Amino acid sequence: MSKRLSALLVAALAVSPLLGFKYKIKDLQIRPAREYASFQDFQNLVIAAYPYSDQERVDQIFDTDKLIEKGFLAILVVIENNNSFPVQIQDKDIYLVDSRGQRERRLHYSDVLLSVSLDKPPSAYSPKDLQRKVDKQMRIDFEHKAFVERLVAPNSSDYGIVFFKLPEEGDLEGYSLYLPQIVNFSTQELLIFFEFELKDASQ
């Protein structure tokens, strides 16, 4: 084998592992809300939650090991609206409540995306470098799956991922999800709040 061919082969082997790390979008498999371990059925609404609190579970929905490494908790929220009117729920009105009753606001998906993509604070990068650092497929995936605002039509369902800080060691015992602002979009009236326990995701 010539020296030139040998050098090209070495270069190819050095590059090929990098090609395997390209972000891959994974399908989000959604079940009927009542099939999740954590749900509440009230006011002709069924709201369910599924916490992805360890790497094995995160691997089901995102092609990254940085979420757990950087201390983020992803929670799938599924909403079934069996009313004759649409309901509106915004991500900023979804809280994680710990075992002491302390409420934690959600983290915006864009902040989580930057944190898992960057080694330094965003302010340390130029706009061009930020664009280069954030994988395009990962950005599309986070944008598509994130729960930002949902207007759920009558007799239909919707879903999305909400992000929080990951409790120590991923232990969710005694934690619950709290939704105080569920709106009848037709009348702009508030429905009664939802709050239910987050049970083990394996159930």
Question: In short, what is this structure?
Answer:
The chain is α+β, with helices and mostly antiparallel strands. Helix content is 25%, strand content 29%.
Defining traits:
single chain; 203 residues; alpha+beta; Immunoglobulin-like; four-stranded antiparallel beta sheet; 6 helices; 25% helix; globular
Q: Could you characterize the architecture of this molecule?
A:
- With 203 residues, the chain is of the alpha+beta class.
- It has one domain (24-197): Immunoglobulin-like (Sandwich).
- It is 25% helix and 29% strand.
- It has six helices and twelve strands.
- The chain has helices at residues 3-19, 55-58, 66-69, 109-117, 127-133, 136-145, and strands at residues 38-42, 45-52, 72-81, 87-90, 95-97, 103-105, 149-152, 156-165, 176-179, 183-184, 189-190, 194-197.
- It has a four-stranded antiparallel β-sheet with strand order 1-2-3-8. A four-stranded antiparallel β-sheet has the order 7-4-10-11, with no helix packed on it.
- Strand 10 and strand 11 form a beta hairpin.
- The longest helix is centred in the N-terminal third of the chain and has 17 residues, at 3-19.
- The protein starts with a helix and ends in a 6-residue tail after the last strand.
- The model is unreliable at 1-20 (pLDDT under 50).
CATH fold field value = Immunoglobulin-like
> What is the terminal-to-terminal distance?
58 Å
Mean pLDDT: 89
Q: What would you say the CATH architecture is?
A: Sandwich
Count of domains:
1
